[in-house]
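[job 0417] fold request received: Carbohydrate ABC transporter permease
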Amino acid sequence: MTTETLRTTVAARRQTGITWARVRPVVIHVVLAGSALVMLYPVIWMVVSSLRPGNEIFRDPGILVKDLKIENYRVGWNALTEPFTRYLLNSAVVVLGAILGNLVSCSMAAYAFARLEFTAKRLWFAIMLLSIMLPIHVVIVPQYILFSRAGWINTFLPLVVPKLLATDAFFVFLMVQFIRGIPRELDEAARIDGCGRAGIFLRVILPLMVPALATTAIFTFIWTWNDFFSQLIYLTDPKMYTVPVALRSFVDATTSTSWGSMFAMSVVSLVPVFLAFLLGQRFLIKGIATTGIK
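[job 0417] inference complete; emitting structure tokens
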């Protein structure tokens, strides 16, 4: 191979490398965009179906709206025994109670496991972790009997009160991991300044736990807002229904189902979850990244 041929080959390879370096980001973005479209297609189809007449929803699997029908939202809002505002407020009450309960109880339990010394601490921590693997279907019957005897059925108490007892072990573990990353020298400095255990927790640990607290609040909001099983078990009065249970009321096995109205209210129910994730995404990523959970 002559010197001129070798130079030509090297130049061609360099040109190919430069061309691929320019094309590669475009290819990657096209693949990612296509994958995102495939994953988001069911949501997009639901939004489009909420704007279609009922007789056209299942005829066309596409996402193009030929006959825009905003009437589905007005009809769906007043289709049940109560306006949909009532169900949104019921869900808001349950969600706010669950968030407050988890933030208070789980942070206190996590501080105890991470900083305090007490008898059988490792054993209790292991039991707490084991409770994460316990399905809710295993405990729902004894819980229902307990709450029924307490007269709490058809109230929001069974959905809120357990949160005040740090029953969500996942959040306790998340906060324990976060607190362990806080230097103990800060505790010692606060103790020298005259702070007790409560003062250290409230003035030192708690302000530094904002990312973990925000992560807990966001996850609690999403999980509680979308919870259907527990709310269906404990809430029997239509006036007490939350959003997931109310959406189930649109489906009737004996009469025709108003799919357009149901999809319209499903879109409405997704808006708070979307906003919570959108506004708290930064805290969510930071909270998970700083707790040692990979």
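[job 0417] notes: Residues 3-49 form the longest helix (47 residues). Residues 21 and 75 are 54 Å apart (CA to CA).
[job 0417] exit 0
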